[in-house]
Design goal:
The structure is a homodimer. By secondary structure, chain A is of the alpha/beta class. Chain A is built from twelve helices and 20 strands. In chain A, strands 3-6-2-1-9-11-12-10 form an eight-stranded mixed beta sheet, sandwiched between helices. Chain A has a four-stranded antiparallel beta sheet with strand order 13-18-20-19, sandwiched between helices. Chain A is globular. The two termini of chain A are about 35 Å apart. The interface between A and B is large, with 38 and 38 residues.
Chain lengths: ~400, ~400
C-alpha cells in the first residue's frame, strides 16, 4: 500500500469523458490498496475563457480579483472529478486550495506556499476516501484566495506529496515521459526510465517543457520522487529522483536539450577594465531583459570581446541598448545575430567522465558545424550554433553519445 | 448617507458590458455618499452550463459536490464586478460566501443561513470600499461550501441587509417593480409604489414571480425594507415594507394574482364521517403531491363532496390515487378538470373593508364567468374559473377594483 499524489493537467480533464477516464485510473490505484490524493488543473480552455472575461472588463485587472476569478477553473474540475469517482463507487471528497488549507504568501498571481495543513486529507485517506485538491491555488493568512501562477498545479502536487510524505508524486501529461531529446527532431529519441532532479532542471530550463521548473526544484528540495506519465496510455513514464541510475551501463549523457528562442549579441573592442561587464549588463538588466549565456574572451591589445544571448523577442530592444553602451564605453562595434540556436548535453555522469566536451566538439566538427559560443557547468555543456544546423547537431550528438533507441 | 444592499440577478450581470453598467450604477450611489454592499448572481446561462457539465458526468451528482461546482458561478461575477468598479476609480473588494462568512446549516443545495459575520464588510465599508458578495452561497460549520438553492441570491441580499441593519435592500431585476397584475394580460396594469410583505407573499406565491418567496419572508421577519427595481431603466421601483400605504386613497385591493398551473379534483358522495379528509389527503401527501386549495361543502344525505387543486403536472398521478381512495372509502365518483385557473385578489385593505367578495363575484357574474371554487383568507380571495375565462376575469376585476392606470 502506497500513498500517491497524482496530478492531472488541463488536457487530461478537458471534457466529462476525459474526467471519467481519470476517475477510472484513480480507481485502479485505490482497488490495489493505494491511498490517492488527486490534484487537478482547470479544464483545457477554461483559464483562457476566464482571462478573456476579465479582459472584457479591463486591461489591468487587480491581481487579487484575478485570483478570485481564475481559481474557479480548478474548483469546477474538483467537483466534476469527485462526482465521477462517486459514480463508479469510489468515495471521494473535493477541496479548494482554501479549504485544504494550502497557505501561501499574499503575492497574488505568483504566490508561494508557506505551509499545508494535511489533517483533513489524512483523515479522509484513513477513512478510505480519495482526496481531490484544486491545483494552482491557495489562501493567504487573511483568507484571500491566491494563485501560484500559470502551470502551478505541478507545484501543488509536489507540495502536497511533501506535506503528506507521499511515496510518489505522479504528474500525468500528454507525453509518456521525459525523452533523451525532442522526438520531433530525433525520431530515435527514447524515453528515460529515470533522471535526476538536477538533470531534469537543466533539461526543463533548456526547453524540454514537460514539467514546471519550480515543481522540480520543490521536489528536489523535499526529495519527493516525481514520475511523469501519460494520461492517455499506459506505461511506467519517467521517474525523477535524487538517485542516479544505478545500472551498469549508466549513460554519461542523459539527454540533449535545445532552444531556438535565443539571439546573440557581441560588443567588440571593449576596453579591458575592471567593472566593464557590469557597465555592459547593467543597462540591459535595468530594461528587464534576461541574459542567458555570457562569454568573455581573454583580452588582446587592452580590449576584449563580450558576447551574450537573450530571448529572441528582446533582440531588437537589446541591440539598441547595446549601441548606446558601445558609445558610452568607447567600444569598437556591436554585432548581433538572431539566427542562432543553443544545444546542450545534460547528464550527472559528466561529473566523473572526462572527455565529454571534446567528444561533443568532434561530433559537431564531423558534420562541419561551426561552434559560435561554448558554456559549461558541472552537468551540462552548451554550444551556440547557427540555427540552420540545429536539427543536424542534435541528431549527431544523440547518436555520438549512444542515446538512439535500438531498432525494433 | 445610507447603507444600501443591492442585489443584481443573472441577466443584470450577463456580459462584461452589463457588469460595467452595474458598476456605473453602484458608483452613483457611492458618489452621493452611500455605503454599498452588492450581491450578485452567476452570469445568465452560467448555472445551466455548470449543471450540464455535471449531467455529463452523472445523473445523480452528490449535493456537496454540486455546491462546490455551482458556487463558482457567482465567484466569477464578484471578481469581474470588483475589477469593473476598480476600473472606474471605485475601491471594491469581493467575497465568496465562505469568505464573508455566511454560515449555513449543512443541507447542501438548499442550505439555510444560520449567521453572518459582518465584521469584514463593516471594516471595508468604513474604509470607503464597496463590498461585493457572491449570492446564493455559504459555508457550513465544517468549512464545506453550501448553496441556498436556486434564486437564493435574493435571500443573500436580504440576509446581509438584516445583518448590517441596512437602510434598504434593493433587488434589481428585469422588471421595474411589482405590478397590480401581469401587464401581459392587462396592459393597463400599473406599478405599485409600495406593497406590504404580507401582500407580496400572497402575490408571489400566487404566481407573480418577481421575488423569491423566501427572501420576502426573511425581509418581513427582520423588517428589512425591500425595493424591486429595474437594472435597465431608472425609476423608484416598488418598496416592500411593513407599513401599509398611508396615502388617503389607499386601495382596498393591492393587486390581482393568477395561476394557470393547477388542476382540480373532486371526490363526490364521500361518507360524511370524522377523519375522512385525512383519509383522502393522506395518500396524496404520501405521494409527495402538494395540495393548494381545499373546499368541502356541508353534507347532504350523510355524504359530502370534497374538492382540491394540485399542480397541473401532478394531475394524472393524483387522479389515479384518488380513484383508489374512492374505492376504499366507498365514495360515489371521482371527477377532475385540468382546464382551470385560479384568480386571487390580494390586499391588506380587505381586512377592514366588507363587501370585497361580493363585489368580486358581481364583476365576474357581469361577464358570465362561472365560479367553480372559492377560498378566502385575511388578505386574499381566490376563485377557480375555467381557464378560458382567465384573461377576461383578471381584466374585469382589475377595472372593477380601480387598479387600471389612468390613460396618459
Amino acid at each position: 500500500m502506497a500513498l500517491i499524489v497524482q496530478k492531472y493537467g488541463g488536457t487530461s480533464v478537458g471534457s466529462p469523458e476525459k474526467i471519467a477516464a481519470v476517475a477510472e485510473r484513480v480507481k485502479r490505484f485505490v482497488d490495489q490498496g493505494d491511498q490517492v490524493v488527486v490534484v487537478v488543473s482547470a479544464m483545457s480552455g477554461e483559464t483562457n475563457r476566464l482571462i478573456a472575461l476579465a479582459q472584457g472588463i479591463t486591461e489591468s485587472p487587480s491581481p487579487r480579483e484575478m485570483d478570485v476569478l481564475l481559481s474557479t477553473g480548478e474548483q469546477v474540475t474538483i467537483a466534476l472529478l469527485a462526482m465521477s469517482l462517486q459514480k463508479i463507487g469510489c468515495d471521494a471528497r473535493s477541496y479548494t486550495g482554501s479549504q485544504v488549507a494550502i497557505v501561501t504568501d499574499s503575492a497574488h498571481m505568483k504566490a508561494r506556499i508557506s505551509r499545508i495543513d494535511e489533517q483533513k486529507m489524512r483523515a479522509d485517506l484513513d477513512a478510505g476516501k480519495v482526496v481531490i485538491v484544486a491545483g494552482f491555488q491557495g489562501v493567504d493568512e487573511q483568507g484571500n484566495i491566491t494563485t501560484l501562477g500559470r502551470g502551478g498545479s505541478d507545484t501543488t502536487g509536489v507540495a502536497l506529496a511533501a506535506a503528506l510524505q507521499a511515496d510518489e508524486c505522479q504528474i500525468y501529461t500528454d507525453v509518456d515521459g521525459v525523452y533523451t531529446t525532442d522526438p520531433r527532431v530525433v525520431p530515435s529519441a527514447k524515453r528515460l526510465e529515470r533522471i535526476t532532479f538536477e538533470e531534469m532542471l537543466e533539461m526543463a530550463s533548456l526547453g524540454s517543457k514537460v514539467l514546471q521548473i519550480r515543481s522540480v526544484e520543490f521536489a528536489g528540495k523535499y526529495n519527493v520522487p516525481l514520475r511523469v506519465l501519460s494520461s492517455f496510455q499506459e506505461g511506467p513514464g519517467t521517474l525523477i529522483s535524487l538517485e542516479e541510475d544505478s545500472s551498469m551501463e549508466q549513460p554519461i549523457v542523459a539527454g540533449i536539450a535545445f532552444n531556438r528562442d535565443e539571439a546573440k549579441l557581441t560588443l567588440l573592442g571593449v576596453p579591458d577594465l575592471p567593472g566593464v561587464a557590469s557597465r555592459i549588463l547593467g543597462p540591459i538588466s535595468a530594461a528587464n531583459v534576461e541574459v542567458d549565456m555570457i562569454v568573455q574572451n581573454v583580452a588582446q591589445d587592452q580590449t576584449t570581446d563580450f558576447t551574450f544571448t537573450v530571448h529572441r523577442n528582446e533582440y531588437k530592444k537589446t541591440l539598441n541598448i547595446l549601441q548606446q553602451v558601445c558609445d558610452d564605453l568607447g567600444a569598437r562595434e556591436v554585432r548581433g545575430d538572431d539566427g542562432i540556436a543553443k544545444v546542450s548535453l545534460v547528464g550527472v555522469g559528466m561529473r566523473s567522465h572526462a572527455g565529454v566536451a571534446s567528444k561533443m566538439f568532434d561530433a559537431l566538427a564531423a558534420e562541419s558545424i561551426n561552434i559560435q559560443m561554448i558554456s559549461t557547468s558541472e552537468i551540462k555543456i552548451s554550444v551556440v550554433v547557427s540555427e540552420k544546423y540545429l536539427e543536424l547537431a542534435v541528431r549527431a550528438l544523440h547518436t555520438a553519445f549512444g542515446l538512439d533507441a535500438k531498432a525494433e
